[in-house]
């Protein structure tokens, strides 16, 4: 059990605008999915990403699950995903009855390797799901070309990357169908998700599949399930979207301070952001030298008043998938063994950021063998 009063990895900011929107939504009587904040949130989210359509839903996970149905992915199909990602990407594919195919990260990146994707495409491959992990854009142009050349779907997982840009263009605008999460992310609504697409037909199918009782529809043609976002969640989301650029500016300022403090540190390195992209640092991550025991490092940071956490365990190493995978994915496995997420909240002040950074440098020097 974690000690109380430790500086957390992240902490959402909820301000007066969110409170005002919630009061307005409650007083209007529209608290379910049929409310004006839902429509406004979707419209503004689409405009922000420069796409034709955005449709809200209950969570990023529900967006992934329903994406499989929208794109008619099922038994006999294969979907390539990064091994280093949140479990929902794999679970959505498995729940659809399709086969999960794991691929490695690119060297010196946390994101899906286009070269490994190319090697793993078969005649059964139906889609590729790159994750913009920790707010770092994947090599999306290369992945998009691979998908177009092979006539397969590109589904961007933007859960951790609202506002991130690849070569000047927002992530979530490249793929055929893209998912977003608002659970303690750069936009935080408690629970919530969104899809973005330029395909109006896919957007309409998604809307029907998450709504089991659409108005003015008397003959249901397909099984659907309630996965809608409420007007209350959308009210919070709209306020957070309006403030997203301010949130990102604070994340970038935090990252600049960490970069500066870690530049010549002993025992650790960082993977620098690509200068052509905009990384939004949902989480700031360091790489420890192999001689440092990461679990010992985590305990030392707790003693100094803040939390650090291991990177995701690559999904091909989880028991549910391990039996079918004798894979070696060295980049993802190295990140798991040596990477740590450190406090990345926009609530951190400059004094706290410098304190955390200096303590990390001290601990790394102390534990380096």
UniProtKB/TrEMBL annotation:
Gene Ontology MF annotations: pyridoxal phosphate binding; transaminase activity
Gene Ontology BP terms: polysaccharide biosynthetic process
Record: active site: 185
Keyword Transcription belongs to the record: no
Keywords recorded for this protein, A-Z: Pyridoxal phosphate
InterPro entries attached to this UniProt entry: DegT/StrS_aminotransferase, PyrdxlP-dep_Trfase, PyrdxlP-dep_Trfase_major, PyrdxlP-dep_Trfase_small
Listed Pfam families: DegT_DnrJ_EryC1
Chain positions with N6-(pyridoxal phosphate)lysine modification: 185
Family statement: Belongs to the DegT/DnrJ/EryC1 family.
Identification of the protein by name: Aminotransferase DegT
């Amino acid at each position: 059990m974690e000690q109380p009063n430790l500086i957390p990895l992240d902490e959402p900011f909820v301000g007066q605008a969110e409170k005002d929107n919630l009061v307005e939504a409650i007083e209007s009587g529209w608290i379910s999915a049929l409310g004006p904040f839902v429509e406004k949130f979707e419209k503004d989210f689409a405009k922000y990403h420069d796409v034709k359509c955005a449709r809200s839903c209950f969570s990023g996970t529900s967006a992934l699950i329903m994406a499989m149905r929208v794109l008619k992915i099922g038994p006999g199909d294969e979907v390539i995903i990064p091994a280093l990602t949140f479990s929902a990407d794999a679970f959505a594919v498995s729940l659809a009855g399709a086969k999960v195919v794991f691929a490695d990260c690119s060297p010196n990146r946390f994101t899906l390797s286009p070269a490994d994707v190319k090697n793993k495409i078969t005649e059964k491959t139906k889609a590729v799901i790159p994750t913009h992990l920790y707010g770092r854009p994947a090599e999306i142009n290369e992945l998009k070309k691979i998908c177009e050349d092979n006539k397969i779907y590109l589904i961007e997982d933007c859960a951790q990357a609202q506002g991130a840009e690849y070569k000047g263009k927002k992530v979530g605008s490249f793929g055929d169908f893209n998912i977003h999460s608002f659970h303690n992310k750069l936009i935080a609504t408690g629970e919530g998700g969104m899809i973005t697409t330029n395909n109006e037909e896919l957007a309409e199918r998604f809307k029907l599949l998450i709504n089991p009782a659409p108005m003015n529809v008397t003959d249901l043609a397909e099984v659907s399930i309630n996965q809608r976002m409420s007007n209350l969640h959308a009210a919070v989301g709209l306020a957070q979207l309006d403030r997203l650029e301010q949130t990102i500016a604070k994340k970038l300022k935090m990252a600049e301070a960490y970069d500066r403090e870690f530049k010549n540190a002993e025992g650790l390195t960082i993977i620098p952001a690509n200068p052509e992209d905009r990384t939004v640092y949902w989480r700031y991550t360091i790489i420890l030298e192999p001689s440092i025991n990461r679990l010992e490092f985590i305990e030392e940071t707790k003693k100094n008043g803040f939390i650090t956490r291991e990177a995701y365990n690559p999904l091909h190493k989880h028991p549910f998938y391990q039996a079918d995978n004798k894979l070696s994915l060295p980049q993802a496995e190295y990140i798991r063994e040596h990477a740590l997420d450190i406090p990345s909240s926009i609530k951190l002040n400059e004094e706290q950021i410098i304190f955390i950074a200096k303590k990390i440098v001290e601990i790394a020097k102390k534990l380096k063998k």
